[in-house]
Design goal:
Layout (H helix, E strand, L loop, with lengths): L25 E2 L5 E2 L7 H75 E2 L2 E2 L13
Antiparallel strand pairs: 1-2, 3-4
GO biological process, one term: positive regulation of DNA-templated transcription
Organism: Physcomitrium patens
Protein name: BZIP domain-containing protein
Length: 135
C-alpha cells in the first residue's frame, strides 16, 4: 500500500502493530507515537495502586450515597405517617362541622315551621289566585 509517511494506517491493516486494539493512534510532529510512556515495572505498580485507591474511594462514596438515600427514605416515611394522621384529623373535623351545620339547618327549619303556625292553627302554604290581572 502506498501510505504517506505521517498518515495513520487504515483500519484494515495493523499498521505495523501486532496488537488488536482499535483505538486511534496519536502521532507527534516528528512521526513518533504519542501516549503514556511506561518504564519496565515502576509505573505499572503506580497505576495499579491508583486504581485500587480510586476503587476504594468509589466504594466509600457509594456507601455514603446509600446511607443518604436510606436517611431520606426514612424521613419521607415519617412525613407520610404525619400527613396521614393530619388527614384523618381534618376529615374527622370536616365530618363534625358538616353534622353541626345539618343540625343548625334543622333547627332553623323547625323555627320557621313553628313561626308559620298562628295560634295553633296552621297557615295554608298554598298559593292563591288574586284578581289583579284583567283577562
Amino acid at each position: 500500500m502506498g501510505l504517506a509517511p505521517n498518515s495513520p494506517p487504515s483500519p484494515d491493516s495493523d499498521g505495523g502493530r501486532s496488537g488488536l486494539s482499535l483505538s486511534p493512534m496519536h502521532y507527534g510532529l516528528d512521526g513518533s507515537v504519542r501516549g503514556r510512556k511506561r518504564g519496565p515495572d515502576g509505573p505499572v505498580e503506580k497505576v495499579v495502586e491508583r486504581r485500587q485507591r480510586r476503587m476504594i474511594k468509589n466504594r466509600e462514596s457509594a456507601a455514603r450515597s446509600r446511607a443518604r438515600k436510606q436517611a431520606y427514605t426514612v424521613e419521607l416515611e415519617a412525613e407520610v405517617s404525619q400527613l396521614k394522621e393530619e388527614n384523618m384529623r381534618l376529615r374527622k373535623q370536616q365530618e363534625e362541622e358538616a353534622e353541626r351545620r345539618k343540625k343548625q339547618c334543622l333547627q332553623i327549619m323547625d323555627i320557621l315551621k313553628s313561626a308559620t303556625t298562628v295560634g295553633g292553627a296552621k297557615k295554608s302554604s298554598t298559593l292563591r289566585r288574586t284578581k289583579t290581572a284583567t283577562w
